[in-house]
Amino acid sequence: MYETVLDLHSYWAFGVLGLLLIAALNSFAGLATKRPFTAQDKRIAMLALIFSHVQLVIGVILLFVNPKLELAKVAGMGGVMKDSYLRLIFVEHPLVNIIAIALITIGWSKHKKADDATAKFKKIGYMYAIALVLLLSRIPWGQWFS
Known about the structure:
The chain is built from six helices and no strands. It is an all-alpha fold. The protein has one domain (2-144). The model has no long low-confidence stretch (mean pLDDT 92).
């Protein structure tokens, strides 16, 4: 089961990263051209939001079916923090990704309260872009491409 969930989490990540990039670039393009915020812009941002939340759920499931979880339990928090791999998998990756998804959610919520297109594009563009950078910073690249 672990391998299946890990594969799903890894492949879904490509979709999340791609959609976040598209949503951020779309927002910055809308901001630069001063065009109105359309239903298509909203759909792009919403799709990125949905994909990122599904990725979070898959990631939480993965965390609990990870065979290294027993090793982390035995090592304790001090042992996990001393081991860079375990720290990445059980602390840094989940924490930073939860923060990134919170920023995506905040950007989505703030855009709904904004009145003009410029404010909507700014809220989505900046929050999604920051979230994208955070997600990229904590991907376990060695595990992802092995």
